[in-house]
Structure formats: C-alpha cells, structure tokens
Amino acid sequence: MTARQLCVLAASVTIAGLVAGTTSAPASARPADDPCVHQQGPIPVASLAAAAHSGCSLVGRVVTDGRISVTVPPAGLSAGGDGVGRHGDVHGLTVTNTGTTVRAVRNSAGTAGGGWYLAPLSTSTTTSSTSTTTSTSTLGRTVPARAGSPAACKDRTFHLEHHKWSTHLRYRVNVGKMPKRFHKKTVVKQVRIANGNMRKGRNTCGKPRLKTPSARYLGRTHARPNVSATRSTVSCGTFNTKNVVGFGGLPGGLLGWTCYWWSPRTSRIIATDMMIDNGRFLTTHLPANCTNKWDFEGTVTHEWGHAYGMAHTGNGHQNLTMQHLLAPCSTYARTLGLGDWLGMNKLYGHRH
Could you tell me the CA-to-CA distances from 335 to 19, 153, 249 in Å, in that order? Predict the structure, then answer.
C-alpha cells in the first residue's frame, strides 16, 4: 500500500434503491408525514451509514466533516475539491455515488504553520521543516529558493487525482465579487494566461509544450461558481456544467478553491468551478516593496492544475507550482517546475 493510500480514511456505505437522477419527489411535493421531508440537512461523515439506512435518496444531500462540504452528485459521478493557501493544515473530502453506494473519503496530513486550510485527497505525507524564502530572478520572473526543498527544475515529485479532461474545457469568468482594487480586463487576462500556463506546461526547465485538450474562454457571466464559503467552511454544490471562475470570501488561509466532478468509470472530468479569495492578500501586480502579498496569476495557475487533474505535491517540495502553500511576493507559480510538468505530461502527453 502506498503512502498516499495509507493517509486516506474511507467511510463507505451501501444504499438500497439509490439510482442516478433520483426519482424521489422534491421535499415541497411530498406528504407532510413523509420521513424524508425531515431529513434534508447536512450529513456528517460519521453519520453517513445511518442516513443510508433511512431509505431516503441521498442525491442532492450535503455530506460534511465540519470544514468541507460536498453535495452528493447524481449516480455515476464523483465530486471533490482542492485548494491552495498561505498557511495551515491539509484537509480534504470527496464523495462518490456509484448508484448503489455513496462513499465519502477523507484524509489529512499536517504541515508547518498555524491556522488551517483545505486541500486535496492525495497529499503527500512527507514531513519537512519550516523554511525561509529568498529569491532570484530568472527569465524576468521572481523564482523562489526555499530552504529544505529541491530546486524547481530538479524536483520530479508529482501526485495525480483519478481523472482528466478528454474534451475541450469551456469556461466563463464572473467578476461580480472581484476586489475593487482589481481591474476587470486584467483579471480576465490573467485567468486566461494562467489556464495556458498549466494547460500548455509553460516552464523554465526546457520541457516541450503539452498536448492537453484546448480550452476556450466564453466570456464573462453573472452565473456564480459552484463553490460556496463561510468564515469556517467551503462547499462544492449541486452538479452543473457551467464551468465558472469567480470570487468569494474563502476561509482560513485559503487563496483559491476548485471543485470538480468526474466519472469514476471513465476517469473523465465533466465540470469544474473555481473560487478565488477576494480578501486583501492577492494582487495582480506585486509591488516593489512587497510584503504579505500573493500573486493572483500564480494562484490561478495552481487552481487550474487541480481543474486538470493535478493533486498537491505535499511537504518538502515547496518550489513547485502544485505545492499546497504558495510563497508570498513571488511569481514563481506562473511557470511549472519539473514535477508539475511531469504530472501533466503523465495525464496528457507532450508535443514532439
């Protein structure tokens, strides 16, 4: 068993009569004495088995561990989410509906730093000490030299989720809750560039362009990303295929969060939505005397990695774009390290 498998704690229950696109009537249309009417609240992971025995469909119900919530998708789909932060602890949750079984899988692994943030199901359990950050300039971009980790172009580490895109990704951007200090055109431009950074495998390691399916920006939208957040929680909502990048107030030390839906049978990603924090820490242009600011384009590049099937590297690989904690005052995450490129290459291949 791998270290990745060892860090996963799974809760799996069999649910009789649970079918794709549940045929149960909505709560408002059911008789008042129907017990399912009174079972519509969030289901704690520890109570998933009891909820299954109720005989009520779980499609559309919310499964939660108190910090992350995921809405049970239609039969044949899985739903989950990954994020990136400034500091904190790793934590994740995914929910799979096979049609006869709903499974919640949870994992956690400690990292240096206080507070908490939310992260993926496939984080490395490697331990490393807290590091300091200095920087040098390469190709006109600030590249970190973070103590205790290999250089970006020498670190071959990567972890993958269980899915990838086999068709073109079409997405829109919602600037409705964008910070007022940002310019709409700049935000859209950097979101599109960030997509290309990850999708094409832009790097400073001399690696060729990737063969990831193309992406198409469809314009701005008023539709909200299928992600919601409070001061202490983040949630992946009811399945849809709108694919929206937007803004919101994320909890803890989170800078970005991406939810995605895929078919476990085919490993094909079907939809993805992204929320970028609209607090005070992100900037589209790092100031000359930068302190306690994080690069917007680099953050979105990381989140596109999750949207394309990449997981976090885990501790000890802090110079890679898919490291779960981004360094402040640096644009290094805009270009992929060797491990980032190798992971995307494993998923999609490259041009010869």
Answer: 43, 11, 26
Distance from CA of residue 43 to its chain's centroid? 22
> What is the band of 89 on the pLDDT scale with cuts at 50, 70, 90?
low
Does an H or E element contain 209, and which?
none
State how far the Cα of 52 lies from the Cα of 55, in Å rounded to an integer.
Answer: 6
Task: Report helix angle 296-307 to 184-200, nearest 10.
Answer: 50
Q: What 3-state DSSP class applies to 40?
A: coil
Predicted structure pTM score: 0.83
**Number of Cβ within a 10 Å radius of residue 266:** 11
- What letters, b where the CB count within 10 A reaches 16 and e where it falls short, cover 217-230? eeeebeebbbbbbe
- Find where tokens 């730093």 sit: 113
The superfamily CATH assigns to domain 3-15+43-52+59-348 is Collagenase (Catalytic Domain) (3.40.390.10)
Domain boundaries, the chain: 3-15+43-52+59-348
Radius of gyration of the chain measured on its C-alpha atoms: 20
pLDDT of residue 55: 77
Three-state SS string over 95-159 comes to EEECCCEEEEEEEEECCCCCCCCCCCCCCCCCCCCCCCEEEEEECCEEEEEECCCCCCCCCCCCE
**Which residues make beta-bridge pairs with 103?**
12, 96
| pLDDT of res. 257 | 95
Mean pLDDT in residue range 145-155: 83
